[in-house]
Amino acid sequence: MAPIIDDTGDWLGELRVSGVQGDAALARLQADAALLASLTILEGEVENLADALAETEDQLLALYELNKSNADQLDIDRLLHRLVEQAMRLVKADAAFVVLTAPAKVICSPGLTVPEPCLIALFERVRQAGSELLLSGAELSSSPWHDKGNLFVVPLLLRERREIVAAFGLWLNRPASDLSPDLKLARSITEQAGVQLEIALSHAQLVAQARLHTEIELARRVQLGLLPQRSPLIAGLDIYGALRSALQVGGDFFDYIVPGGAASQPFTFVVGDVSGKGLPAALLMAMTRIDLRSSTLCHSSITPAAILAQANEHLYDDFTKVGMMATVCVCQYDPEKGQLTIANAGHSPVILRSAGQAACLLDADGPPIGVLPLSLWQDKSIPFQSGDVLVVATDGLNEERNQRGELFGIDRLLDQVDLLSTASSKEIAEGLLAAVAQFNGDDVQDDDQTAVVLKAC
């Protein structure tokens, strides 16, 4: 009989033979027992190595699936869910979560009942510290998962921004002394997830920008569609209007209103400028234009001052809520009397160039729409005979600056009207805009620029 003992001295079994005796047989028996012991030990090592290889293969496969799925999909929700799922599989965690700030998301593994505010507070701790957290014992006593061992929270850093935008947490129910390999693996997973998340966030930002660009372009088309597409044919008048937006949409507008019915009814046109730029100004511009048009068309004998009064009554509350206003000039032409009637709600510049005289600036007679709930505007009638020119522009012309920071100014505008006064209304309007553009040079246009020109024939 010979015992079979492993390399630690533990007894594995014994080897017995019968029918032989002597020292040679005993030595052979002991050698066979030692060989069996070695084979048993090797078999155990092979099994352990196979288990380790199987675990490594599983980890590699999970990492491959994580990378492949993240690379194939740019949906942030699906990416974070897959991160939680695969990380739990790789690290063999009891629970996991991800907190993302922008867009705000909290993704948890199934069964995790920790309130979102607690997880967000963990993220804030990590972000403020700028490093990972490993919590256990008393630090987790208030958590529903306090019996799950250790909580490891890793910051998720976007390399390009150098900013912590998310945190990844794992509950590991193992002694702290055994966590080193798991923590290294969790760090690697988080680093890879950060790369994929950065790609997904950049893609989402590009999609949002493209959508916004599309919506603004649509708004620009709608706004341009609200403007007159051609000048009306009014006996005794040569009319032309032009608008150049600083942005894709803006607050400048003009409109021609030609009521039906008797030929003696006056032709009305309006020019306005809503404070501000972009979509807010464009929305209020559309509201103001519609209100002015409907007030004019619904009353056959309404005057410019009354048109402004009604618009202010209808729109005052809306403008007040958003802290904006609109300057508006309303003009009517009476072909029988050969005169213009003007009411001006804080609008400038309005320039009159009577034939044979120098161009002059007409002052406003009341505040912009949306400033006061009172009606302070008055109708002002002026003769408008052959050769006379009226230019109603917006302050985007006279307030344009050159590269030295100088304003184009009212004086230059008046000089240009004098120089162009013998030309057609179209040539005058386009000439004014061209002079301002030349003055500006290659700088970005500061504000919307509108010019409507009336010339008496």
Descriptive account of the structure:
The chain has 457 residues and is of the alpha+beta class. The chain has three domains: 1-71, no CATH class; 73-205, Beta-Lactamase (2-Layer Sandwich), CATH 3.30.450.40; 228-456, PPM-type phosphatase domain (Phosphatase 2c, domain 1). The chain has nine helices and 17 strands. The strands form four sheets. The chain has a five-stranded antiparallel sheet with strand order 4-3-7-6-5, with helices on both faces. The chain has a five-stranded antiparallel sheet with strand order 8-17-16-13-14. A hairpin with a 4-residue loop joins strand 11 and strand 12 (339-345). Helix 1 (23-72) runs antiparallel to helix 2, helix 2 runs antiparallel to helix 4 (180-226) and helix 8 runs antiparallel to helix 9 (425-440). It is rod-shaped, with a radius of gyration of 41 Å. The relative contact order is 0.08. The model has no long low-confidence stretch (mean pLDDT 83).
Give the helices and strands, then pairings:
Layout: E1 2-5, E2 11-15, H1 23-72, H2 76-91, E3 95-100, E4 105-108, H3 116-129, E5 133-136, E6 150-158, E7 163-172, H4 180-226, E8 237-244, E9 252-257, E10 267-274, H5 278-298, H6 304-322, E11 326-334, E12 339-345, E13 350-353, E14 360-361, E15 380-383, E16 389-393, H7 395-398, H8 409-420, H9 425-440, E17 449-456
Antiparallel strand pairs: 1-2, 3-4, 3-7, 5-6, 6-7, 8-17, 9-10, 10-11, 11-12, 12-15, 13-14, 13-16, 16-17
Helix pairs in contact: 1-2, 1-4, 2-4, 5-6, 8-9
